[in-house]
Amino acid sequence: MIDCTGDADVAYRAGVPTEKGNADGGMQPPTLMFCLGGVDTDKLRLSIANAPPQARTYLTDFIPAEYFGQNHQFIVVGMRELMAKAKQERGLQIPNERTIIITGLKKGEVWINMTRVKDTDGTDARSLTRGEIEGRAQIDDIITYLVNYVPGFEQAYFTKTAPFLGIRETRRIVGQYVMTQEDVLACSHFDDAIAVASYPIDIHRPADDGCTLIWCGDCYDIPYRSLVPQKISNLLVAGRSISATHEAMGAIRVMATCMAMGEAAGRAAKISVRGNRTPAEIDVQELRRQQLERGVYLRNPDGTRAPAAEHAPAA
Ligand SMILES: Cc1cc2nc3c(=O)[nH]c(=O)nc-3n(C[C@H](O)[C@H](O)[C@H](O)COP(=O)(O)OP(=O)(O)OC[C@H]3O[C@@H](n4cnc5c(N)ncnc54)[C@H](O)[C@@H]3O)c2cc1C
Fold it and tell me: What residue owns the CA closest to ligand 1's atom 36?
């Protein structure tokens, strides 16, 4: 069986040791995404692209201004000073330091990633319910900020929320290997790598309104052993609940990495079943060989891309 619940629900109930949160038990806060229509996204992007360098209020955290001059679909992450000004002037309750806007599929549509519900446990129904209510309550002040301070939002109107809170962090299994912050930041290579990722450590901090973002400068491997739980022999775990510390999980939790892990776990399960071996017993080099046959991006120990195997693709 493969547990891709995001919460390690199967592993936890089967008795696999799991952990939650940082050293204080704090987990990244969830976000109720919501959607606005009527946004002049060209005005928004050009206000950033054309802002003089000293106009710090429009600065984005790490995306260069030129990006906004060229792209009609874009993401804004930053505008910290503008938001601080709005909070001060209007007494807005927005538990977030950053403005995060993502253009949607329709003209004038944007998705807002700014609500932030601290102290929510995504594995606890009561806590989730409280989180949904709190997430909705935060939307009004965020819209007041956007409409009154951010260029292009003057005519914006609310259209919809996501169907439920987006959960960033819950349980992580303790597996055969626990990935760490050091592994990510050292761009580590593992002999049993089943995926390569480059997303930074991105932690929406549990205890305050800020975010920690640390890049490794290149990419790092995900070891197969982090998908293999302790104690239960016929189980693999893929996605954000693999065996990693709170910090490493802050990096491996994104969609592309989770999908790569899921694909690897599926192939590992096939090898396990056909070879009548437990997931812990399979030949990981055979798994890697099959992955390479299917065009999966894996690395050599020197960091270069491993060549695709020469065999015909496996079924
Ligand atoms: C607000 C927010 C914004 C984000 N933005 C980005 C972004 O821009 N880019 C990016 O790459 N990542 C982003 N992420 C992170 C990313 O979306 C998740 O970390 C990632 O999708 C986790 O993948 P997963 O497969 O582990 O879990 P999930 O994608 O959560 O999939 C788990 C699935 O299992 C199902 N499930 C759960 N429990 C059970 C059960 N008991 N029985 C049956 N089914 C069950 C769920 O319904 C779900 O379909 C964001 C996350 C949040 C919360």
Answer: 5
